[in-house]
């Protein structure tokens, strides 16, 4: 029997599950098709960045991950000795959160199911055909045939995305030039420091504790960096390489997971092809420097979710979906540039080692350190050329497309709340003072589009408040500003 739904999300990793939850929150009928029959046990990704924590906080989900994760006040750029300092960043979350991907997936799956999302495991998509009204999917479901008719399909099915390939979307980039080794193992003599990172002429190594007596060892061995990805990794090879690079195997035994990975780097030519869209690793593939892949995928999902829901449920024009590519494709391009730069810094030649010493000094400059911390943390993303049409009224300069931190708000009725709490339902937010009580005439982003709107009246902000010159603020469901207005200063952006 053919299943008929609004959106089929192919891929049940963090990106797909986050997107499914966003859509279901807006009343969209969505189904997730995941090829794996069981939830993943291994966790390639271990880090959640500040912007991803903000994204979860926008929906009131941050407490679920904070309870399970471990805050780390610093990060690294290319394994340089000078750490990135998150303590001064303009966010509630001035740290990265150490949280295995398996836990993240489990929490997001629980959230999605709670909103009515149908998650179907063991489903492998094998064909895709789209027309002017929707998309037909078909494939194998544990030995049986399945079919689905959806108005839109989103490929969140990883770097080898079947959806991307079936839709004919190009994925240009560079082939693997270096491979590294990963092992989740027991260490009888773990390093004295909880986070070991080193880079020398013999290679580089990272060791971090996973809990329950397990550690992750990641090694790039100068003598083994050209080993093909298809060659299985053994404990003996990992042990020998770790001894060569770090001088010890730290009593390595009992491997739970061994894997080899490379630095292949690619970016989808387009994030949207008619009724097919891409998100997460299906759209961008890169060396896992800084643990950015999962995080950018979550942020892709929140950007796409409200737009797709607006088209399906609020009468928004289909062209709104073009803004997903326009806003997120440059973010993907910047991600690839960032990870390639880090990968280059993790080389072993005398020239690279000299560059590393230079960069260690440069990173001690507070402004440089902060800039790279904001990039890694996803806090530098803005959409100043936001393609969502603005109201006819004049806008306050410098606000359009800006990412908002979770500022505390003093409301006109005397209550206090955080800005993000007003966005938990995935609605737009109109935040105003007495000078802009109702939304201005013609505030709707397009004719016929009536977004769900949460209206909140705030007290006139004090001069020290970041909102002191704002009388009306229209905030998108993803926490970026669509439009800002001031009674005292009326000029066009």
Question: What would your notes on this structure say?
Answer:
With 493 residues, this protein is an alpha+beta fold. The chain folds into 3 domains: 2-46 and 100-174 and 266-346, 3-Layer(bba) Sandwich (FAD/NAD(P)-binding domain), CATH 3.50.50; 179-262, Alpha-Beta Plaits; 408-485, Glutaredoxin. Helix content is 26%, strand content 28%. The chain is built from 10 helices and 27 strands. The chain has helices at residues 14-25, 50-57, 62-66, 101-114, 162-167, 235-246, 293-313, 322-345, 350-362, 366-377, and strands at 2-10, 30-34, 47-48, 70-72, 74-75, 84-85, 96-98, 118-121, 123-130, 135-141, 144-155, 173-174, 179-187, 196-200, 203-211, 214-221, 252-262, 265-267, 272-273, 276-278, 284-285, 408-410, 416-418, 428-432, 453-457, 472-475, 481-485. Strands 1, 2, 8, 9, 10, 11, 19 and 20 form an 8-stranded mixed β-sheet that branches. α1 packs parallel to α4 (101-114). The chain starts with a strand and ends in an 8-residue tail after the last strand. The mean pLDDT is 93.
């Amino acid at each position: 029997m053919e299943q008929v739904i609004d959106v089929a999300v192919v891929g049940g990793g963090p990106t797909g599950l986050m997107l499914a939850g966003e859509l279901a929150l807006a009343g969209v009928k969505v189904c997730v098709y995941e090829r794996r029959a069981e939830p993943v046990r291994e966790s390639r990704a271990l880090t959640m960045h500040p912007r991803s924590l903000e994204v979860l906080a926008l929906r009131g989900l941050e407490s679920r991950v904070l309870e399970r994760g471990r805050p780390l006040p610093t990060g690294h750029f290319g394994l340089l000795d000078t750490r990135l300092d998150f303590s001064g960043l303009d966010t509630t979350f001035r740290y990265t959160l150490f949280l295995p991907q398996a836990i993240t997936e489990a929490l997001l799956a629980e959230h999605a199911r709670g909103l009515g999302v149908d998650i179907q495991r063991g489903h492998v998509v094998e064909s895709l055909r789209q027309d002017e009204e929707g998309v037909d999917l078909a494939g194998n479901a544990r030995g049986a045939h399945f079919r689905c008719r959806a108005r839109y399909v989103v490929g969140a099915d990883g770097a080898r995305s079947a959806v991307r390939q079936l839709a004919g979307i190009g994925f240009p980039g560079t082939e693997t030039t270096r491979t590294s080794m990963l092992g989740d193992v027991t260490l009888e003599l773990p390093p004295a420091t909880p986070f070991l990172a080193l880079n020398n002429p013999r290679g580089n190594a990272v060791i971090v504790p996973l809990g329950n007596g397990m550690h992750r060892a990641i090694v790039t061995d100068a003598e083994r960096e050209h080993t093909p990805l298809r060659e299985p990794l053994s404990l003996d090879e990992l042990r020998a390489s770790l001894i060569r690079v770090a001088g010890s195997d730290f009593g390595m035994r009992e491997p739970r997971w061994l894997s080899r990975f490379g630095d292949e780097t690619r970016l989808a030519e387009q994030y949207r092809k008619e009724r097919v869209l891409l998100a997460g690793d299906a759209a961008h593939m890169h060396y896992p420097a800084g643990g950015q892949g999962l995080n950018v995928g979550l942020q892709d999902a929140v950007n796409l979710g409200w737009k797709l829901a607006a088209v399906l449920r609020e009468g928004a024009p289909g062209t709104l979906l073009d803004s997903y590519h326009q806003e997120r494709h440059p973010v993907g391009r910047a991600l690839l540039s960032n990870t390639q730069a880090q990968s280059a810094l993790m080389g072993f030649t005398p020239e690279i080692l000299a560059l590393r010493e230079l960069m260690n000094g440069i990173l001690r400059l507070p402004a440089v350190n902060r800039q790279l911390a904001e990039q890694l943390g996803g806090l530098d993303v803005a959409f100043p050329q936001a393609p969502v049409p603005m109201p006819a009224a004049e806008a306050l300069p410098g606000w359009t497309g800006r990412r908002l931190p979770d500022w505390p708000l003093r409301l006109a009725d005397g209550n206090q709340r955080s800005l993000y709490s007003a966005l938990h339902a995935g609605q737009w937010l109109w935040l105003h003072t007495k000078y802009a009580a109702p939304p201005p005439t013609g505030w709707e982003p397009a004719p016929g589009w009536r977004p769900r709107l949460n209206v909140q009246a705030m007290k006139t902000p004090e001069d020290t408040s970041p909102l002191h010159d704002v009388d009306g603020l229209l905030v998108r469901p993803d926490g970026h500003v669509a439009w800002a207005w001031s009674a005292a200063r009326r000029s066009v952006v």
